[in-house]
Amino acid sequence: MSICPKNKSSKSHRDKRRANWKMGATTLVKCSKCGALTVPHRVCKACGCYNKKEIIKLDEE
Q1: Which H/E stretch holds residue 18?
Q2: Furthest-apart CA pair in the chain: how many Å?
């Protein structure tokens, strides 16, 4: 036997359940070397460093 609802769920009851499926704001932290805002646990796009170590060599123009 499969699961079968006993009563109809109204549109408002269904939509209240789905109301929590929203996106949150992304978390940003300051880079420890240059101070630019970056996503945590990622290499900084401004200076190419992670955990105060240079990971990617960026061309400064």
Answers
A1: helix 11-18
A2: 68
Burial class (CB in 10 A: 0-12, 13-18, 19+), 38: buried
Q: Residues 55, 49: contact at Cβ < 8 Å?
A: yes
pTM over 0.90: no
Domain ranges of the chain: 29-56
Cβ proximity of 45 and 38 under 8 Å:
yes
Residue 17: both structure tokens together? 């359940």
* 31 contacts 47 by C-beta, under 8 angstroms: yes
pLDDT digits over 27-54, tens only?
A: 999 999 999 999 999 999 999 999 988 8
16 backbone dihedrals φ, ψ, rounded to 5°? -65, -35
